[in-house]
């Protein structure tokens, strides 16, 4: 595949009027390359891939002037680019409803294939929030999980600094062009990301930061991640947009609790009330993620592992595991990796209702209390009562955010 040809074809789609990510996604599912999609634009409407106006606009090459200008400027600036059909393009971004067709990047592109956790929060924050964001980010990165954030001042900055301390490193997603130095107070962090991490943007060369760019950018922060941690946020913080998008994309949402009455933590407290998992360390995050993303984290050690294992440095072990083959784990093999043998239930004398709940938890591995009620057709008080009895018997375990799983030995 001609990568430059693909790059230019993606620019053609990007600059076709009224053509956006949702249409791009349909086109990429129907054609073997972006180039083939653009070349056959006249057929889009007949194939129900776009409106007639969109198909005509692309076929008439109304995009050419802007596409050529961006292409030449990107080449002049020496920017690296990864397009949809490039093997380096992150699979997780292909899953979101409105994915980018391409990303500009500078740094270590291999990080796009790493399991990631977004750590976001307020620009105006407390020392507690900064310490927590940096500590958890460093713990995640040490075991090989990449920390994703938005390169803003405050929590984002601290998240990147923590991520850069370990082998997982860090990815920054910009709301402006890759060649625009913003924010100016983070030039030192950006330099470290260029050397040891990765900086990406869907915006072209020279595009200035605007207010509307950052909520759009946030979908990529959550999309690149298995889960999003909000380390500190007020009730109107932009990081809450990232948390909402994460939920819509099927990612886990985590929040750090703060002092009662502290305005910069009210957003975190609201998230927790709405079902986000309350976390205090990386081990809380990884424990929850393992039940939703077992395959992605199969080669990742636990955060509370000793600094050395049998005399081998943990970070070196993580690097070695990254290079090893990681074949998909499916069916019974996957369940075996995700769960230890269950406690002996025969000796508990469980009621029929208790057995029904446990059977559902076995099938789903982990379920929210609301989902259990819907599946069983029970009201919330009945579900709560049965779960409480099972928890007292030691048959189930409650996770943060009112999630439940069958208890292990």
From TrEMBL:
Pfam families documented for this protein: DNA_processg_A, WHD_DprA
Superkingdom of origin: Bacteria
Biological-process GO terms, alphabetical: DNA-mediated transformation
UniProt-annotated stretches for the region Disordered: 323-346
Domain Smf/DprA SLOG positions: 81-288
SUPFAM superfamilies (UniProt xref): MCP/YpsA-like, Winged helix' DNA-binding domain
InterPro entries: DprA, DprA_WH, DrpA_SLOG, WH-like_DNA-bd_sf, WH_DNA-bd_sf
Domain DprA winged helix, chain residue ranges per copy: 346-402
Stated family: Belongs to the DprA/Smf family.
PANTHER family: PROTEIN SMF (PTHR43022:SF1)
Protein name per UniProt: Uncharacterized protein
Organism from which the protein derives: Pseudodesulfovibrio hydrargyri
Lineage: Bacteria, Pseudomonadati, Thermodesulfobacteriota, Desulfovibrionia, Desulfovibrionales
């Amino acid at each position: 595949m001609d990568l430059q040809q693909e790059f230019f074809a993606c620019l053609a789609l990007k600059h076709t009027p009224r053509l956006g990510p949702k249409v791009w996604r349909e086109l990429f599912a129907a054609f073997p390359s972006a180039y083939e999609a653009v070349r056959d634009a006249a057929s889009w409407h007949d194939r129900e891939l776009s409106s007639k106006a969109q198909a005509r606009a692309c076929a008439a090459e109304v995009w050419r002037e802007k596409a050529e200008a961006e292409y030449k400027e990107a080449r002049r600036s020496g920017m690296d680019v990864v397009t949809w059909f490039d093997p380096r393009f992150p699979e997780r971004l292909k899953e979101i409803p409105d994915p980018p067709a391409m990303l500009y990047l500078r740094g270590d592109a291999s990080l796009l294939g790493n399991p990631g956790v977004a750590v976001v929060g307020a620009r105006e924050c407390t020392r507690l929030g900064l310490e927590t964001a940096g500590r958890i980010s460093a713990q995640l990165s040490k075991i090989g999980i990449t920390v994703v954030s938005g390169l803003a001042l405050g929590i984002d900055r601290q998240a990147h600094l923590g991520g850069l301390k370990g082998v997982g490193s860090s990815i920054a997603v910009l709301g402006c062009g890759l060649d625009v130095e913003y924010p100016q107070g983070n030039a030192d962090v950006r330099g470290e990301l260029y050397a040891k991490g990765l900086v990406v943007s869907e915006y072209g060369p020279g595009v200035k930061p605007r207010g509307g760019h950052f909520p759009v950018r946030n979908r990529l922060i959550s999309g690149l991640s298995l889960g999003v941690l909000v380390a500190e946020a007020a009730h109107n913080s932009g990081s809450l947009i990232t948390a909402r998008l994460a939920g819509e994309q099927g990612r886990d949402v985590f929040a750090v609790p703060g002092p009662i009455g502290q305005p910069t933590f009210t957003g975190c407290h609201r998230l927790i009330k709405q079902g986000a998992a309350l976390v205090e360390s990386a081990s809380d995050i990884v424990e929850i993620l393992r039940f939703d993303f077992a395959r992605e984290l199969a080669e990742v050690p636990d955060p509370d592992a000793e600094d050395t294992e049998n005399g081998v440095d943990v970070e070196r072990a993580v690097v070695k595991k990254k290079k090893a083959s990681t074949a998909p784990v499916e069916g019974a093999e996957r369940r075996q990796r995700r769960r230890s043998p269950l406690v002996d239930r025969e000796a508990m004398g469980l009621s029929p209702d208790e057995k029904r709940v446990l059977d559902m938890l076995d099938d789903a591995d982990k379920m929210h209390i609301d989902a259990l009620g819907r599946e069983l057709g029970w009201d919330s008080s009945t579900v709560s009562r049965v779960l409480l009895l099972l928890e007292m018997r030691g048959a189930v375990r409650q996770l943060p955010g009112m999630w439940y799983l069958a208890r292990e030995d």
